[in-house]
Write a structure and sequence with these properties.
The complex is a heterodimer of chains A (about 250) and B (about 400). Chain A has about 250 residues and is mainly alpha-helical. Chain A contains ten helices and no strands. The longest helix of chain A has about 35 residues. Chain B folds into two domains: about 160 residues, no CATH class; about 230 residues, MetI-like fold (Orthogonal Bundle), CATH 1.10.3720.10. Chain B has a three-stranded antiparallel beta sheet with strand order 2-1-3. The chains are: A mainly alpha (about 250), B mainly alpha (about 400). The interface between A and B is large, with 56 and 61 residues.
Chain lengths: ~250, ~400
């Protein structure tokens, strides 16, 4: 475990160094740039693209988390329960929508730029979080529910201090999925002129410059790795805190 | 999906009104009142002129259509039996398709081949609402897998008949289609080949790898971890990164270029889809084999089955539904990802999507995106039904929680 933590730290240092001083990595990428093409993307700053990419993913994921957790809570309350089977199948079917198609269909309605990308990321991000929150809330053990009712908790108290905390690790797993998927999908946003790292990859595809494709792809992959890692350790820590009460998954 | 709450029938309350129906009727009303039913363009690129439902059709026809939509909405609004709701939703969707087709004919001047009529927000809102009503009725009826397949075949057949009859030919998306009918079917074949071919290759490689992972413990973590890392590379970058090595192989390995291996075109797309398909195939095979109950293994051993017999007759059949779920995940995912092949000259429906995006031609985007969505949708329904039919009845309640997230939960 110690070795892999060291590797991750090294990768993080490399990533930050690359984003701050991309030119110093020129020798690494030069072999991939055919016939004297530039080895490092300079049209816009890689750091700015990365930050804009992350901001877009962050905003979309946050919005998706708020809306879908809210909806999942709603359909698991007695008042909204009749919508549960339907919302399940909508979530199931919605996942089959290819993210590229969501993006392509959003363009005619919202035009070019960051907006269609944000909307596609938001819509596509709703489903994993919704699905996981539902799973989390509906698998709280019956005995725990009964005990909470037994000590005189109201419905709201049970939701806030029993059900949601128990479901939190699964909900976080859903948010992690959304964030990682969005990170990859956001690169496609550059085909509709959103400022993301996809810009670098597309520039490479158009000018047949593998060096650009490589650096754009590597930065996104590393970001995905760190986000995945961060969430996984958070989930593990919260799971441990919930301790023996954690329902079997 | 049908794993629901038995309470649902009894908890539907309200003063004779269906709560979902109220929401859907509101969507239909708002869509038709506030949004144009269709959009008229004098040619392909000028700004669209919105046309409401009442002026999109000849006066009498438009009143009949509006009347029928109102009747259908009222039927959804009231607490009507599910079979009725199902038929009403299907019939109204057919009516909407008929109306938009007629609007295309009615609004396009007969001599004008440049004018375009496209469905507007009102049409899409209404179609969305009735599609949800259809899904809701199907869920409430708890349709068995075969029933769902029959419904899908019915809707698909109706759609095909409708397009084939030419009733919608005046619509802009079908104008785009008519302009490139040959290319469309060629790209459709490429798209299917990319999605299904890479799935087949991944199944041939991934299932044995999964079996191997269960047998050889140390291999398991290493393989699943590296496939996981592969999955984090953005699809667009992976497509791009494969160009250089494949170009090299095509140029240097004898016979490689003869079977179509080259830097651009279909080969990098195929390899990238194959790579993305491996993780779900391997991890679902592992999960499936590990879900075989210990009692079943013990019983088989007790009956004196050999290791080979146990594997072929007990473990593999019991693991099959989970492996099939992996196939479902991969196929749906590949049908969507194959769109990206259009970016690197690999063909498929993505060709139209990206051409349409670069020309800001909405109809062309739709020509690529709608068949993709329809294919993914149909594949999901068919394979979900297949998974359900192969699953032993006892695990009905576990069915749902297993179906979608195998790919990610690893």
């Amino acid at each position: 475990m110690k070795g892999s933590a060291l590797i991750r730290l090294l990768l993080l240092v490399l990533l930050v160094a690359f984003l701050l001083t991309p030119q110093s990595f020129r020798p690494v990428f030069q072999p991939f740039a055919a016939n004297g093409a530039p080895a490092i993307y300079t049209q816009s700053s890689l750091l700015a693209l990365t930050l804009s990419h992350l901001a877009m993913v962050g905003v979309a994921t946050l919005a998706a988390a708020i809306v879908s957790i809210g909806l999942a809570v709603l359909v698991t309350r007695p008042a909204g329960r009749e919508f549960l089977p339907l919302s399940r199948s909508i979530a199931n079917i919605g996942q089959t929508f290819p993210p590229v198609a969501v993006l392509a269909l959003a363009v005619p309605v919202f035009g070019f730029g960051p907006i269609p990308t944000l909307i596609a990321l938001f819509l596509y991000g709703l489903l994993p979080i919704f699905e996981n929150t539902l799973t989390g809330l509906t698998t709280v053990p019956h005995s725990v529910q009964e005990a909470a009712r037994g000590v005189g908790m109201t419905d709201t108290q049970r939701l806030i201090s029993v059900e949601l905390p128990l479901a939190l690790p699964i909900i976080l797993a859903g948010i992690r999925l959304t964030a990682v998927i969005s990170l990859g999908t956001a690169t496609i946003g550059s085909t509709v002129a959103a400022k993301t790292l996809g810009e670098v990859i597309i520039a490479g595809l158009i000018s047949n410059n593998t060096a650009f494709v490589l650096q754009g792809g590597l930065v996104v992959a590393l970001l995905a790795l760190f986000i995945h890692q961060g969430f996984t350790s958070l989930e593990a820590r919260i799971g441990r805190q919930a301790g023996a009460m954690q329902p079997a998954q | 999906m049908s794993a629901g709450f038995d309470l649902q029938a009894t908890t539907r309350r309200g003063a004779g009104l269906d709560r979902l129906g109220v929401l859907l009727a509101a969507i239909v009303a708002a869509g038709l009142a506030l949004q144009p039913f269709c959009l008229f363009r004098a040619n392909r690129i000028v700004a669209a002129k919105p046309v409401g439902l009442l002026s999109a059709l000849p006066p009498l026809e438009s009143q009949i259509v509006l009347g029928l939509i109102v009747v259908a909405s009222v039927l959804l609004l009231l607490r009507t039996p599910s079979p009725l709701r199902l038929s009403v939703s299907v019939l109204t969707l057919v009516l909407l398709a008929f109306a938009i087709g007629r609007a295309g004919v009615y609004l396009t001047p007969s001599s004008n081949t440049y004018a375009r009529v496209a469905p507007g927000g009102g049409f899409w809102f209404a179609a969305f609402a009735f599609a949800i009503a259809l899904a809701d009725a199907a869920v409430r009826l708890r349709m068995p897998p075969l029933g769902r397949l029959a419904l899908l075949a019915l809707i698909g057949g109706a759609l095909w008949l409708f397009l084939w009859s030419g009733a919608c030919d005046a619509l802009s998306i079908l104008r785009e289609y008519a302009n490139r009918a040959d290319v469309f079917w060629r790209e459709a074949r490429v798209h299917l080949f990319l999605a299904a071919g890479s799935l087949a290759a991944a199944a041939v490689v991934g299932i044995p790898l999964g079996i191997l992972c269960v047998r050889v413990r140390p291999l398991r973590a290493a393989l699943l971890n590296s496939l996981n890392i592969l999955q984090t590379i953005p699809s667009m970058a992976l497509f791009g990164l494969l160009i250089a090595p494949l170009a090299w192989i095509g140029a240097h390995v004898p016979g490689a270029s003869a079977i179509g291996i080259a830097g651009i075109g279909i080969a990098p797309a195929f390899v990238a889809l194959f790579a993305y398909s491996l993780l779900p195939m391997v991890s679902n095979t592992v999960a499936g084999l590990e879900s075989v109950p210990v009692q079943a293994r013990d019983a088989a051993r007790g009956m004196g089955m050999t290791a080979r017999q146990r594997f072929m007759e007990i473990e593999l059949p019991l693991a099959f539904p989970v492996i099939l779920t992996g196939i479902r995940i991969v196929l749906v995912q590949n049908l969507g990802l194959a769109v990206l092949a259009g970016l690197i000259g690999g063909g498929g429906f993505g060709t139209f999507v990206f051409q349409g995006i670069s020309q800001t031609a909405t109809d062309l985007v739709l020509l690529g995106a709608l068949p993709t969505v329809a294919l993914a949708f149909a594949a999901a329904i068919v394979l979900d039904a297949a998974v359900e039919m192969t699953r032993p009845m006892t695990s009905a309640s576990a069915r749902k929680s297993k179906s979608l997230f195998e790919r990610h939960d690893e």
